[in-house]
Write the C-alpha cells for this entry.
Amino acid sequence: MSETPTGPPVPQDPAEDRGVPLELAAVAELDHDRTRRRGYPEAVYCEGKTAAQVAAIAAAVRDKGSGPATLFTRAGGEHVKAVLAELPDAHYDTDARLLAWPPTAPPPDGGTVAVVCAGTSDLPVACEALLTARYLGRPAELIVDVGVAGLHRVLGKLDVLREARAVVVVAGMDGALPSVVAGLIAAPVVAVPTSVGYGAAFGGLAPLLTMLNACSPGVAVVNIDNGYGGGHLAAQIAAPPKD
C-alpha cells in the first residue's frame, strides 16, 4: 500500500490561532525614512499577506502619526476589515482595491497626470494608477474606454492629453494604445499592461511585449497590472521643479 504524499506545512501567523495581535517585528520592518530619503512614502502591498499581518502594519502606521498618506494596495475584503479596524477613517476605493491613510489627498501640485484606460475591464488598474498619482500630490484625470478599436475616441481627448505632463496608458488585449497615444503627444507615456484578454494574451504577457516593442519613442513600461507603479512613475515625472 502506497503512502499518501504530504507537502511541507503551511506557514501560519503565530498569533492567529490564539486571537491576539501580531507584533510588527514578526512580519515587517517599515521604512519610515522613505519620505525624507525619496520624497514619497512607503506603500503596503496587501496581496499575499494575511489579515493579521496587515493589521499589525496598519497599527504601526497609526502609531507613527499622520504624515504623507500611506497606501495599502491590492487589498481584499479581509485586508480592508483589518486596516479599517486600526485606521477607521482610512479611505477605501473599491475599484482600485486601495486604502489610503490619512484619507485626504494632499493639495495638487506639479503637472497633471492623465490616466487613459483602454476599456472598462482595465478600469481597476487604471483607478489604482489614478489614486496613486493623486495621493502623491499630482492633479490627475481619468479618461475611460478609448481603446484602439475606435480611434475617434482617443482623438476626441487630445486636448486633455496634450496638456498633461505625463500620461499613464492602461491596456490589455493587444496592448496597442500606448504606441498610438505616444505618437500624438509630447509628454512621456507610462504604459501599464493588464491581464485582460482572451487566452492568447497569456495573462498580460502579449500586451507587455507589445508595449516593450513600441515604435513610438517616449514610452516606459511597468509590470502587468501594476497600476501603483505606473501612477508612481507618472507622479515623479510630473513633480514640480525643485528650488
